[in-house]
Each structure stands twice: as structure tokens, then as C-alpha cells.
Specification:
The structure is a single chain. The protein has 162 residues and is mainly alpha-helical. The chain has helices at 6-13, 21-52, 58-69, 115-119, 136-146, and strands spanning 76-79, 124-129, 153-158. It has 2 domains: 6-52; 58-158, no CATH class. The chain contains 5 helices and 3 strands, in the order αααβαβαβ. The chain has a 3-stranded mixed β-sheet with strand order 1-2-3, with helices on one face. The protein is elongated and about 105 Å long.
């Protein structure tokens, strides 16, 4: 559907009696802007098709980052582990089980974290070799484009051992 040879199409649409080299050359010159526009459309179409084949899934995102920035496949995505337990504080009217806070002496503390400590928690970590530290902003933009909404990440550099 997208493979059109405009030069051949011009000749086929021209009546046989008018198919002279001079007229065909003139029609090719007239069709040149259309051919240029069609070529830019085809290039953009291939770019969009490549962009929509990648998703926020780890395997696809890792493949895309390695394809764009590191041909040696050193960029890795790992899950971030959160050592903090989930503690929820409820209103009395909600009828939930009571939560007790302890003193340090009692050896059973429940820690309550502030917003800053919570915001530093990430859902995944993108490990990038030190050689790509100049591309960190581009890698960040690519991950922001493809990651799932609400997922937080951090980029860490590391030394690649040959």
C-alpha cells in the first residue's frame, strides 16, 4: 500500500500518444515535491511503527535502551526493593485493627517515614555503564516516555568489568 513508484505511475497514467521523453521529464519535475513529501512520510511512518512496538515492560524497555544507546547490551533494569513494611494509620470510625506505637526500649518500633523518604523510593533502577554518563539525560527522557504511569525510577552508573 505504501510502495508507490511515482515515475512509473506517471508514465502509466499518460496516454500512449503523449509518452514522449520531454513530456515525461516535465511531469517528473512537477512530481518532485510530491515524491519528497511521500519519502518524508514513509520515513516518519517507519519511526512511528518502531516507537509503538516498544512498551514499558522491562524486557522491551531494556531492549530499546540498549538498541539506542549501548550496542554491547550493558544497560540493565532491575527491580528496586523496599525494606520498609507497609504501615497504615486509620481513623477510629473506619473500624480497623488498632496500631500501637512503641518506645525504643520495647524493641518493637514502628517507624513512620516522612514524605521525602517516601519519595526517594523507586520502583525500578536503570543501571547504565560509566561510559554513557553523557547520555544520562537522553536515557532519562526515553525511560520517561515509555515507562508506565506512576512508576518511579532512578538511574545509577556502574563500572563495566571487561
Amino acid at each position: 500500500m505504501f510502495n508507490v513508484d511515482f515515475h512509473k505511475l506517471l508514465q502509466l497514467l499518460l496516454p500512449v500518444a503523449l509518452r514522449q521523453p520531454r513530456l515525461i521529464a516535465y511531469l517528473k519535475v512537477l512530481a518532485k515535491p510530491l515524491i519528497t513529501l511521500f519519502n518524508s512520510f514513509t520515513t516518519h511512518r517507519l519511526y512511528v511503527l518502531d516507537a509503538i512496538t516498544h512498551t514499558g515492560q522491562v524486557i522491551y524497555l531494556e531492549h530499546l535502551l540498549n538498541k539506542l544507546y549501548d550496542p554491547f547490551n550493558h544497560i540493565k533494569i532491575i527491580d528496586s526493593t523496599d525494606p520498609r513494611p507497609d504501615v497504615f494509620i486509620f481513623n477510629e470510625a473506619e473500624g480497623q485493627q488498632a496500631i500501637f506505637l512503641f518506645n525504643k526500649i520495647e524493641n518493637a518500633p514502628i517507624l513512620i517515614y516522612n514524605r521525602h523518604e517516601f519519595d526517594n523510593n523507586n520502583d525500578f533502577i536503570v543501571k547504565v555503564p560509566n561510559g554513557l554518563f553523557l547520555l544520562v539525560e537522553q536515557i532519562t527522557a526515553t525511560v520517561h516516555r515509555y515507562r508506565q504511569a506512576g512508576k518511579r525510577f532512578i538511574i545509577q552508573t556502574y563500572n563495566v568489568i571487561p
